[in-house]
Give the backbone structure.
Amino acid sequence: MPEKKKAAPKAARKKAAKPKPKADVRGWAPGVPKEKPKGRTYDGPLSVNAKPKKADRIFFGTGGVPHSAKPQTHPAAVRRLHDLGLGVYEMEFVHGVRIREETCDEVMAAQAETGVQVTAHGPYYVNLYSLEDEKVAASRKRVLDTARALAKCGGDGACFHPGFYQKRDPKEVYDFICNQIGELADILEEEGCAVRLDPETTGKGTQFGSIEEIADMGGDLKGKNVGFTIDFAHIHARSAGAHNTYDEFGAQLELLKNRMGDDVLKTLHIHLSGIAYSDKGEAHHLELDESDMNYKDLFRALIDFGAEGRVVCESPALEYDALIMQREYRKLNGG
Ligand SMILES: [Zn+2]
Ligand SMILES: [Zn+2]
């Protein structure tokens, strides 16, 4: 029998307990912080915003209240983005659709005054393919509530993550979720709610929402008020590092066009950020310059395909990275 190992001295034990650097997590330059340092407000380099020489066909903004908005509210977010020269605000209802009627009125007024486009991200706790009926019902309500609240704010695109496979047959999951989203669009239409439902491409293989599924759904639900959110960082992470070149971005845009028609590239709702990932997909979002996200080639592809729409920056740096994206897009677009 092997001799029982002596307990290591305290210092050595401490060292051993330290988590190993995640060698399998890729996408960012080692040594830089993974998350936004607390309290960093990005006041400095916001002067990157120069007026475009050529009209923008893609508008940029943030997913969530910009760090430099004062106070940290939805109406102040709209005004701050406008002051910065940005054009899109995605309200995050990711932990629940909670917004007061008066706030909706204020957002509506701010967006009418500034021209900033307003969209919303629904709660993360949505699974339209839950095996429990109550969870499906609750998920349906969360999606509907996102759209209803957004309509009151004068917005027009409700993004959400549709659900999880839970080891079920992806085709069965697809049919079920597609049917659910079709029904939800019908309910909203009956209510006179003009908000488009924009299911998102997701970052992990366990989550429903590959680009093929989202593109197929757009085709199958044609005629209903259903679009999609294409999150290029998620697609990159979901494939553990592929989908990050000009040709691959072009192939994605081609796929969307083929399944849904040419018009689809005129109303794109895009999410973009840096991202860290492993073989299992998305680990967490990153600032652009700390990541390997090849956004310049993405913009080249979007411009070459004549794409129009909006890009919501979901990096931890929010408005800072949104401005970097906008500057780069304008440079490539002849501005
Ligand atoms: Zn999302
Ligand atoms: Zn996203």
About this structure: Confidence is low (pLDDT under 50) at residues 1-8, 11-21. The first helix runs from residue 10 to 17.
